């Protein structure tokens, strides 16, 4: 659940300095920088913010800041609740603004002096979209990580085309000429999860697709997705999806 209640929005253009070099608010505060640079310290996080930096300061946390080059930025003060982010993610440098977030900022700027009663509803929507856009980016990167190692790329491709053959991690490691232990360490470093977890993700995604798009028996689904039998698949599926394969299929029938 993510809720936003906007208290203030202001667009500052080429601000040469802050009147207050340090401030502590009763609200959340967000800076989305379009141009310029500033040094900041928010709690125990510090650094220099540049174009497209998004800074986030929780209530009752000191925000120290100093303009380095005249700052053009969106200032947002708001109440905020969310169960999707860890506390440490909501302090200091929160994200880099992409085109979607900058579009939200453009809408906020257009609404800044609009007298309509609906403005606050729209402001809440666009600010929530900033958080949702960043949440999507993190989830996408988690499931589609950028892989630099050619060997890890080859291993990922091998798993994607052979997961249904009940391959083992040792077989994947042998395919790229590495030991199983070394492969597991390097894979987690590059991808963020273990090769066992990645392989399980591929198989579970295949199971979901087969359950939704076919009426195949569970034992056949298991074989096609790389599981030994339907009973083992049902146990793994229920643990992962918190529902049985038959219930999942029933709930997705149209």
UniProtKB/TrEMBL annotation:
HTH araC/xylS-type domain location: 153-251
Task: Tell me if Hydrolase is a UniProt keyword of this record.
Answer: no
Pfam name, any one: HTH_18
Q: Which Gene3D superfamilies match?
A: Homeodomain-like
Give GO MF terms, alphabetically: DNA-binding transcription factor activity; sequence-specific DNA binding
Could you list this entry's UniProt keywords, alphabetically sorted. DNA-binding, Transcription, Transcription regulation
Q: What is this protein called?
A: AraC family transcriptional regulator
């Amino acid at each position: 659940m993510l809720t936003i209640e906007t208290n203030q929005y202001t667009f500052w253009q080429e601000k040469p300095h802050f009147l207050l070099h340090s401030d502590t608010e009763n609200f959340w505060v967000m800076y989305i920088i379009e141009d310029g640079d500033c040094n900041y310290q928010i709690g125990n996080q510090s650094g220099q913010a540049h174009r497209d930096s998004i800074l986030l300061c929780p209530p009752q946390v000191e925000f120290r800041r100093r303009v380095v080059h005249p700052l053009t930025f969106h200032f947002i003060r708001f109440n905020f609740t969310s169960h999707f982010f860890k506390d440490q993610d909501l302090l200091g440098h929160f994200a880099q603004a992409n085109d979607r977030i900058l579009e939200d900022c453009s809408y906020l700027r257009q609404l800044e002096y609009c007298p309509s009663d609906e403005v606050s509803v729209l402001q809440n929507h666009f600010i929530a979209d900033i958080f949702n856009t960043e949440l999507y980016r993190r989830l996408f990167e988690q499931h589609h990580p950028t892989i630099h190692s050619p060997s890890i790329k080859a291993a990922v491709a091998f798993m994607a085309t052979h997961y249904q053959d009940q391959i083992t991690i040792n077989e994947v490691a042998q395919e790229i000429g590495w030991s199983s232990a070394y492969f597991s360490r390097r894979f987690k470093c590059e991808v963020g999860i273990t090769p066992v977890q990645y392989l399980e993700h591929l198989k579970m995604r295949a199971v979901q697709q087969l359950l939704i798009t076919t009426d195949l028996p569970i034992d056949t689904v298991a074989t096609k997705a790389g599981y030994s039998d339907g009973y083992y698949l049902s146990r793994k599926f229920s643990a992962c999806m918190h529902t049985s394969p038959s219930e999942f299929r029933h709930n997705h029938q149209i």
